Amino acid sequence: MTDSTSVPNTDDAEALETLHRLRGSIDNIDAALMYILAERFRATKQVGRLKAEHGMPASDPAREEQQLARLRTLAIDADLDPEFAQKWFTFVVAEVIRHHVEAAEDR
User: Fold this and answer.
1) What is the CATH number of the domain that holds 36?
2) What is the pLDDT of residues 38-59, one digit of tens each?
3) In a domain, 5, yes or no
4) Closest to 56 (Cα-Cα) out of 89, 103, 4, 2
5) What is the spatial distance between Cα 32 and Cα 76, in angstroms, rounded to a whole number?
6) Structural domain count of the chain
7) Could you tell me the residue range of the domain that residue 51 belongs to?
């Protein structure tokens, strides 16, 4: 058992340095994801306005199924759990549809 006031050994210091470096990388990836998601939502909001202007439905189940299949394949190729990809996509699509409904209501 080590005393919490003791100086970390060299291995601990190296581990902490690696931990901080990895967390910095994760923080950068998270920031990039936020900007990418923001860009995606800007594009889908344009789609929502276009749909509203032309009386198209907010949801497009056929398109959603195609995208879901495509994303599941991409997830597998990227060594990511396709179930996670599906959950993420379902969450994002729900938000997109909400935006599309709002755009239609604003018309």
Assistant:
1) 1.20.59.10
2) 999 999 999 999 999 999 998 9
3) no
4) 103
5) 22
6) 1
7) 10-106
